[in-house]
Amino acid sequence: VLDGKQPICECNSCYQGSDCSNFIPGCAANVDGYVPFLLVQHAASSAVVVAGWHRMSYKFNDHTFISQELERLIRKVHDIVGNAVTDNRFIVFGAGSTQILSAAVYALSADNASSPARVLTSNPYYPLYKMQTELFASVNFEYQGDTSLWKNSSDAGTNMIEFVTSPNNPDGQLNKAVLHGPYAKAIYDRAYYWPHFTPIPAPADEDVMMFTLSKLTGHAGSRFGWAVIKDEAVFQRMTKHIGVTSIGVSRDGQLRALKLLKVVLEREGKEIFEFGYETMKTRWEKLVKALSLSKRFSLQDIEPQFCTFFQKLRQLSPAYAWLKCEREEEKDCYAVHKAANIIGHEGSVFGAEDRYIRLSMIGTQDEYDLLIDRLNKLVSEEVGAK
Ligand code: PMP
To answer: Where's the Alliinase C-terminal domain (predicted)?
Structure first.
């Protein structure tokens, strides 16, 4: 980090010293975060320098809040990756996909309905859907829990808005909507639908799909996400929501996204996705190996599938491990790991039992190595104790 004239080294949490090489003994392996790591090796070509007078106004020259060039690049990235249909679709930008989530809930609910649309999730689910919907609850929509409660609902006439996360956070499954029929609408969160995390069996073609730079290149701090929308009326309502809540998306953020997507598109995406896939696959293999002798812990089961991007059957490389504590008495898997100096995310955060814990596979290499060290220790204690 450059602070005035002094270069300051930003160390990972477990390291200190002027060159960040001193390990802090006993430091916890903190793998509860969402800190992806891609593009670290493209420091120069992905850099952005902005003159002080540049891009100062709310809008672009065409009086929109959206860079047309960035929109073109987004369509191109989806084309070469083959993960989403964008022809004859509208694109909306948001401050991360987080802003898009609430814009989509607003857009899919009606202003004059007799009862609020039910906003629903399927366990285990990404917790922000519930938190955000509850925060913004209105006469138009309300969070009403798990989809299973409403699957056979005879309460026809009330719209249901289902969040479908595919691949899912926390367990990496390629989920599909469970609610169908004239009152069921789905918001597909495709944040992790990129070749480094999952096979791409076919281009996604849902009515409302959301993507984010945070999981494509790892630039979560730039707060840039987008949605691909089929229906013009939904697109208009989402655009209105984003206009009213933040008068569009940071133009600095858009500029940064533009530069990053250009780097992604070098060699038709081969470099970044191959690097990302190899890194994630190696991490998963190490995790599986670390737990292979354990009867105490198990990992989620994900089916390997053919990936149209890599043109091969893909090995697993999910963004998160969804680990289960198998011993009857170990109902608090978070506490079990905390005692071993590993900090994850409790299952109950995702609407599941606390017998589960989510461990992030997308942190820095140091954090990840520390996780594997600590897990190796846990498993050798278990195996040795037999
Ligand atoms: N959806 C899912 C499933 C996520 O895991 C995340 C980030 N953890 C988001 C959306 C939000 O991403 P963004 O940074 O684009 O707001």
So the answer is: 41-379
For the stretch 164-209, pLDDT in tens is 999 999 999 999 999 998 899 999 999 999 999 999 999 999 999 9
Same domain, 117 and 127: yes
Residue 61 lies in a domain: no
Ligand 1 closest atom vs CA 95: 16
pLDDT for the residue 77: 97
Q: What is the pLDDT of residue 260?
A: 92
Q: How many domains does the chain have?
A: 2
User: How much distance in Å is there from the Cα of 215 to the middle of ligand 1?
Assistant: 8
With beta carbons less than 8 A apart as the criterion, state whether 117 and 160 touch: yes
Closest CA to 373 of 9, 14, 12: 14
d(CA 50, CA 39): 20
pLDDT higher than 80, residue 5? no
Q: Which atom of ligand 1 is nearest to the CA of 168?
A: 3
Q: What is the mean pLDDT of residues 21-30?
A: 74
Residue 6 domain-assigned (yes or no) = no
- Regarding whether 255 and 362 lie in a shared domain, the answer is no
Number of the ligand 1 atom closest to the C-alpha atom of 98:
16
Q: How far is CA 154 from CA 59, 119, 142, 181, 182, in A?
A: 47, 16, 18, 12, 13
Residue 60, domain member (yes or no): no
Structural domain for 196, as ranges: 68-267
Å from CA of 294 to ligand 1 middle: 32
Ligand 1 geometric centre to CA of 320 (Å):
13
Residues 99 and 232 occupy one common structural domain: yes
pLDDT in tens, 112-147: 888 999 999 999 999 999 999 999 989 999 999 999
> Best of 31, 32, 34, 256 to mutate for ligand 1, by most ligand atoms within 8 A of CB?
34
Which residues 6+ apart lie within 8 Å of 26 measured at CB? 341
Amino acid in position 55? R
Phi, psi of 23 (to 5 degrees): -75, 135
